[in-house]
Each structure stands twice: as structure tokens, then as C-alpha cells.
Amino acid sequence: MSEMTERNRTRSPEGEIEPPVQTRKAVKRGGGDPATRGRTTIADGVVEKIAGMAARDVVGVHAMGSGLSRTFGAVRDRVPGGTKAVTRGVKVEVGEVQTALDLEIVVEYGVAIVDVAQAVRENVIAAVERMTGLEVVEVNIAVSDVKLPDEEDEEPESRLQ
Predict the structure, then answer these.
(1) 153, 154, 149, 125: which is closest to 139 by C-alpha?
(2) DSSP H helix total and E strand total for the chain
(3) Is the pTM of this model over 0.90?
(4) Helix H segments across the chain?
């Protein structure tokens, strides 16, 4: 046996030369990055819910949607088993990698509407992009009303006790 071969082999505690250990190469199965092995689709409703929650989190936003949609939504919310419509006032278009959103908001009286709109836009973009991975190409905001301090909410009184 050559001197080179003996140097590459390990010796047992008794000094005997042991055969080289066979190691297996890591085999990459499936051909490629796991992220490329399939397709993820995100429904419009998912993006609507994320955007609705993110918009409502902004200080100065009183409600979402037009007066009529808020009135119908308030009635629907009071029906036993009904859930609060977080998508009220939110419309989206979702593509494969991009999305565009239209929001309709009601602001509190006294706030700077431009600042509230900018904060809503930033919060919605951050939340949607972080949670979905979609690129938000635009967020259009329509301010449909201002909630005055002495106005009551447009929710009808419940007849249920």
C-alpha cells in the first residue's frame, strides 16, 4: 500500500488501519427550489379583509363604506350568527403578482384628511405586501363622509332584546 493511501486512512486505537468510511453525497430531489414547485393563488376576499383591517387601524378613520352600505351592514351585523363585515368599503383586483385597491372611508371631524388618507394608504400597502407577497400598485381612497361629533352612528336600534 502506498504511503499516500495509508495517510488518508484512519487508524483504530490498536493501531490497525481501518478502511475509508463511505459517505453518501446529499441528493437533491425534485429538481429545484421548493418555492418553485407549485402555485399559490390568493382570493380577492383575502386581500379585502387584510386591507379592511389595516385601514380601520388608522386613527381618524371612523368607518368604511358609503352611508347606505354602512346601514345595511349594521343591520346584517345585528342578525344572530352574522359577522362584522371587515370588507365593507373595500374593493380589490388581484393578479398573479400585483393587486390594486379602492377604499371608501368616513373620517372623524377635525382630522387632516390628507394625513389620514396617507396613513391608511401606507398601512394598507404594508399589511397587504407583508401578508400576501403581492405588489400593491395603487390604493385609491375615496372619503365619502365626515363623522361630526354630535352625529349619531347610522346603526339602527335593535328590536331584539
Answers:
(1) 125
(2) 4, 4
(3) no
(4) 3-8, 44-56, 67-78, 113-132
What Cα–Cα distance (Å) separates residue 75 from each residue in 22, 85, 149? 73, 11, 23
For 101-148, write each residue's pLDDT tens digit: 999 999 999 999 999 999 999 999 999 999 999 999 999 999 999 999
Amino acid occupying residue 128 = V
Q: Indicate the DSSP class of residue 36.
A: G
DSSP state string for 86-104: TTTTEEEEE-SSEEEEEEE
Give the up-direction half-sphere exposure of residue 63: CA atoms within 13 A in the CB hemisphere.
21
List of long-range contacts for 121-127, beta carbons under 8 Å, 24+ apart: 123/54, 123/55, 123/57, 123/58, 124/51, 124/54, 124/55, 126/54, 127/50, 127/51, 127/53, 127/54
User: Shortest CA distance to 61 belongs to which of 33, 81, 89, 96?
Assistant: 89
Q: Encode pLDDT of 30-76 as tens digits.
A: 667 777 788 889 999 999 999 999 999 999 999 999 755 445 455 55
